[in-house]
Structures are given as C-alpha cells and as structure tokens.
Design brief:
2 domains, Rossmann fold, alpha/beta
Amino acid sequence: MSEKKIGVLFVCLGNICRSPLAEGVFRHLVIAEGLEKHFLIDSVGTSSWHVGEPPDERGREAGLIAEDLYPGLLAAYEGRLSDETKLYDGVLDCLDVLEAAGWRLGVCTNKPERLAVMLLDSLGVLERFGAVLGADSLPVRKPNPEHLHETARRSGARPDLCVMLGDTRTDLLTARAAGVPCVLTSFGFAAEPLDDLPADAVVHHFDEVAPVLERLRPRPAETA
C-alpha cells in the first residue's frame, strides 16, 4: 500500500494580486529536503484540507516538518516575492476611482506585515493605501474584528463606516464580526464555492468594485 500524502493548500493576497510563487518556493524546498513523497501541494481551492474540516491525523507530522522548513520558506519567498506576481486587470483604475470618490483605503491581511508591505511596494501600489496591517501587526488577526477596525482607524476611516473587500470565508467572518458589509471577488482563492458564502455582493472584475462599494457604503446616522 502506498503511503498517504499530506495536502498543502496555499492562499495569498488574492483580492488584489495573484501569485503561484508561494507554492513554487515551498515545492522547491520540499524537494531539496527529500520530502516530496510526503506532500500533495496545491495553490488553488481544490485541495481536501479546507478551513472548518476536522484536522487530519497527519497534521502533527506536517507541523513538525513545517517548523523546520518555515524559516527557509520565508527567506526563499522574500527573495522572490514578486517574481511571478502581478496585479489583477483593472486594479489601478479601481484605486483611482475610489480615491477620487474619497474612500480611505487600507489592507487587512493575514500575511506577515513586512512581506505584505514589500509585495505592495514591488507592485507599485503601496502608497495608495493609508495602512497595511498583517497577521503580526496586532495581538489579534482576522477574523477578529479589531484587525479590521484598527486598519480602518490607521487609514483615517471610521471603523463602523467601512466595507470589507475580500475573497475568503475569513474575510466574510471578519466583516460580520465588525458589523460592516462584505464584498467578495469571484477571482480570488476562496477554498469553497462563493455560493456557500453569504456575502453582501460578489464582483467578477475590478471595474465592478467602486459602484458596489458605493451602494453598500454604511451611512452616518443623521442627527436631529
């Protein structure tokens, strides 16, 4: 009987960029360590190991291996951070429209902050965002709503008047916990079908984002 393999699913900043780099770097390190027989590696939402499923017994073995590989993985990833990464079509025009409409923009990601900043800078869009908060920026991270609230505050926005634009269940749960609308992109890296995620709206291209955000934008309570 052949040995069962451990499934590894990679996700990234899928709502503004797309990159197969993390998978490639991890695959390279696994092969270099002679561990390829232990893994099935994927970078899209088709693997068997999704958020919400019971942990697999082989997860303990994967954790031990990951602890040894993680420093090398981060170093290799950082060294090739934007080699195969590009913005989605329409991102720059979308940012222009949102800025002109007075939106305060921020990035709330579970990627390490330093790597998120490096990636956005390499893509030429870092200065378009008032704040970038990663998984290590605060004592909490998504789906804890404070991660989104603090991103809004540092961006110069009111946390109760923001809209979350994302592509995963974690983004949706964050928005729900924060009490704000959530828009999901159909071209991100959600591990489950969008039909299973009850977002306030789903967009299929960045040229749809601005009108949807304006429609869903929370309004300040009118004073008497």
